[in-house]
Amino acid sequence: MFKNILKGLTSYQDSLKLINELKLWKFFLVPMAISFLFGMAIFFAAYGLSEYLGRFFAKAWIWEWGKETFTNIATGLGGLVILFLGFILYKHVVMALSAPFMSPVSERIEEHLYPQARNQVPYRDTTNMEQLWRGLRITLRNITYELTLTIPLLLLSFIPVAGIFFTILAFVIQAYYAGFGNIDYTLERHLKYKDSIHFVKRHRGIAIGIGIVFMGMLFIPVIGVILVLPFSVTAASRVTLEEMIKEENLNLPHPDR
Fold it and tell me: How would DSSP label each residue in the chain?
């Protein structure tokens, strides 16, 4: 597991070089705009709605003494809740909306690194509607699982000392599903819905490693939400192709890095 997490982390190596070499920036313009605008929307939602949530939660405090302090704390917690839920939705919404632009990027990387793979790795010839429906199923599945797992962990994270463990676990789960989404840009043209899920489960360490960097970049003000998709998709495409070729036992030349 830890070896695969490291593999996912290091898959970002030379991503910028590969993007420049294949002239991929033009494909990222719209996704970068989507990512930036959605990220800003979450930030302003947290800023604008936190006060309303604070006042709502403050109604639970029936005493006059300490009411202002409790309201301030509730306002801060309300903002954090919005940011947390927005953080979860951000990954899935932005990646889903960016799919029409990211899939061609993944395919170009595949053709560049492994030009012989097209005839040897399983390939799905599907319509746009089939790809859209498949992507929607993956997105809804992942959002459901992620919310089900992370919301209880969010509540448990308020437990003194032990809460640190639950916070880290929640981060790892979010990283896994972020990595899942980036890996699926490559899997969607090769594997069916259930096969893709099984593939990511077999390589969950790689998904976590990719997702850790993805999540980490989101903490970089402004520039992080702009560049996160180009680097993550490039890294995920390369390492996913490597693992698929290994599973198929293909004797294809390994690209120089």
Answer: -HHHHHHHHHTTTTHHHHHHHTT-HHHHHHHHHHHHHHHHHHHHHHHHHHHHHHHHHHTT---STTHHHHHHHHHHHHHHHHHHHHHHHHHHHHHHHHHHHHHHHHHHHHHHH-TTGGGTS------HHHHHHHHHHHHHHHHHHHHHHHHHHHHHTTSTTHHHHHHHHHHHHHHHHHHHHHHHHHHTTTS-HHHHHHHHHHTHHHHHHHHHHHHHHHTSTTHHHHHHHHHHHHHHHHHHHHHHHHHTT---PPPP-
